[in-house]
Amino acid sequence: MNTKNITNYKPKDFAELLGVSVKTLQRWDRDGVLKANRTPTDRR
Predict the structure, then answer these.
(1) DSSP states along 1-44
(2) pLDDT one-digit tens code per residue, 12-37
(3) Of 9, 10, 33, 42, which is least packed with CB atoms within 10 Å of its CB?
(4) Which pTM does this prediction carry?
(5) Radius of gyration of the chain (CA)
């Protein structure tokens, strides 16, 4: 996977871009619809 053009967003900012809530993003991550990047301490 080419990671040169990947941009990281905070969950709140990404939710605003998509027009959904942060809770929706978290549910999508849990359900496998969307894969969130995580920090070494397991934060999204």
Answers:
(1) ---TT-----HHHHHHHHTS-HHHHHHHHHHTSSPPP--TTS--
(2) 999 999 999 999 999 999 999 998 88
(3) 42
(4) 0.75
(5) 11
Please state, in angstroms and as integers, the Cα–Cα distance from residue 39 to each residue in 10, 16, 19, 20, 43, following that order. Answer: 12, 21, 24, 22, 5
Cα–Cα distance measured from residue 32 to residue 24, given in angstroms and rounded to the nearest whole number: 12
Residues whose CB falls within 8 Å of the CB of residue 22, separated by 6 or more in sequence, listed in order: 11, 12, 15
Torsional sign, CA 29, 20, 38, 36: positive
